Structure formats: structure tokens, C-alpha cells
Amino acid sequence: MLIGVPKEIKNHEYRIGLTPSAVREYVAHGHQVMVERDGGLAIGFTNDDYTEAGATIADTPEEIFAKAEMIVKVKEPQPHECKQMWAGQILYTYLHLAPDPEQTRLLAAAGVTAIAYETVTDNRGGLPLLAPMSEVAGRMSIQAGAHHLEKAQGGSGTLLGGVPGVMPAEVLILGGGVVGTNAAKMAVGMGADVTILDRSLPRLRELDDMFRGRVKLIYSTVDAIDYYSKRADLIIGAVLIPGAAAPKLITRKHVAEMKPGSVLVDVAIDQGGCFETSKATTHQNPTFVIDDVVHYCVANMPGGVARTSTIALNNATLPYGIALANHGLKAMANDKNFLNGLNLHRGDITYKAIHDVLGKQLGLNYKDALEAITTS
After folding, report:
1. Which CATH architecture has domain 2-111+305-375?
2. 219, CA 20 to 30 Å: which among 26, 32, 147, 324?
3. Which residues contact 152 (CB under 8 A, 6 or more apart)?
4. Which CATH class is domain 131-299?
5. What amino acid positions are annotated as catalytic residues?
6. Domain edges within the chain
7. What is the pLDDT of residues 306-316, one digit of tens each?
8. In Å, how far are 5, 41, 172, 300 from 38, measured between CA atoms?
């Protein structure tokens, strides 16, 4: 199979779909890999690194989209990229379709087979291809929040960990999954007063064993969100419904009642955000202010530490990518967890949560994923 790796083009996005090491693995399995010139240069992967690993270098992304049987990316394709894709071509990347009807419409019109990293599951119900970026984003959320609490950045001028004689900042984390857990680890390490809200009692018990009293663990209710949001200096939005739009847990009213100079970091922004006042921002212009509350809603947070993120992502995505290259769509037919990654196939939506949100709006049919790949 011919694998294509275009350069990412979103604002300050320096990650790349395959590292040279990953390219070498594809080549060792008998596949060809085409990488866009200078695609990984910003994070230290040179064209020579890729050619030594067995790739060929394409001078333009158009060449890659026209020729490659499978496109491997990091972020969702932009509209002009979607329009270059063709029926039967495999797209393997983060998609986040639920809050993005335009991307969904364009990919469906192109007839591509779109496989989303964020909806592939494992036997424990986890999301193994989302987890590495969730780990990065969770840790970065505290780093970003601490920075924007500084007065010069528009915050209240509060040091996250305080100092002897001065209280630390109060950090509220909405969601105790991978993002929330990693955020809590960073916040606790910096000396903050940390509270996690979650609606799973088993998960709260796991976190209790993990943090051993260093974090307040509260069952999430409307009352709990009301109470803790008013006290918080920093709120991390870390909720996730796989494949679906994030619930709006922090309302405009909550924001209006928060302390001036508080900071909101919405890690769920790729899925539409879990704060009612959220709107996607970039690393170039990461924040905006509503009711004296700083909002950090960067839609590709891990892109800020692109080398770490690229390597971590490839560690997780490579085995599935090799399976696709070796066996085509049969790789998913024989793996129900991998099959959960199929979001679109030849114009049909194949992931129920996405169809529930967008199917009627776009006039697209839902088709069972296994049926879609075995009958087309």
C-alpha cells in the first residue's frame, strides 16, 4: 500500500503523522511511504531522516492526496484538503466530527473511509489512540492555566502552589479520566489545592487510591459545579463522551459568578467544548476574556509540545496503521475495538453518536460499521 503523510497546516501545528521510525516499520512490512517535504523539520525530523527510513519526499501535498491509498495525519483535514480526497481512500487521523458538520459533509461527499483515532477502543473501554494526547493535554492544561493566572497574562496574579504563609490556588477539574488525572498529577505536584468532579463512583474510588488524600474527590452534580466553580482560581474542562459533542457543564451564569482573573482551560474544545462561553483558539492567540475570566481554548494543545506529542502518538497509532496497510479494511472486520474507529465509509456515517448529532442536519445515512466494510 502507498501511505501518504502530508504536512499539518493548522495554526502552529508542528506534529506529523509518522516519525522516521514509524516509516521504517511500514517499509519493513513491504509498503511505500510518501512524506511531504519538510513535514517534520520543525520538530527535528529532516528529509534525510525520512529518506534513510525508506520514504520518498513529495514536493506538494497535492501529490500525496492524489496518489496515496492511505493518508496518515494528526489533525482533521481542512476543507481544501477534504476536496482533494477520493472514494475508497483511507484517512487515518483525529477527526472530531460531531462538532464539525462541514468536515463531515466534505468527507462524506468525497467517499473516503475515515478512521478516527479518538473513537478506537480497547477491551477495558479505554481510548488507546486518544490517551497519549489526553496525557499531554492534561499536563499542559495546568502549565497553561498557571501561566495565564499571572497578572501580565490577564489573570488574578495567583501562584498555583502559593508560598509558606499564602494559600495555594484552588484548581477544579471536571472529569476524572485520562485528561483529568494527568492534570491533577501536575497540579498536585505544583502544590495547588485540587478538586476533581466525576460522575463515576468506581472512578472516584480509583482516584482515591491513586492520590491518597491529596485531592478532593466529589461526585459531580449541578450543586457541586455551582459551589466549586465560584471558589476556583483555575477550572480544567476534561469531560469526554467518545465521538459526541461535549456537555456544557460551565454555563455563562457560572462564568459571571467566578472570581475576576480566574482561568478556564477547555481541553474538550475539539469536541465543541464543555464551557458555554468557549470558542476554539490557537497557539498564536490562545485566550480571550469574558466577564473578567480568562478562557484558554486552544484546539490543538499537544501541538505546543509537538516533538513529544508526535512520538507519543506514533507509539499508539502505529500497530493499527500497520494492520490497515497489511490487511486493508479486513483489519477492522476482525477487531471490534478497531472497528469503533470507523466514522465514515463511502458517504455513510458509521458511528452512531455522530449520526445522532449530524445525520439529519446533513441528510446522511447511518450504516453499521461492520456491514459498511463487508458489503461495499
Report:
1. 3-Layer(aba) Sandwich (3.40)
2. 147
3. none
4. alpha beta
5. 96, 270
6. 2-111+305-375, 131-299
7. 999 999 999 99
8. 11, 5, 41, 20
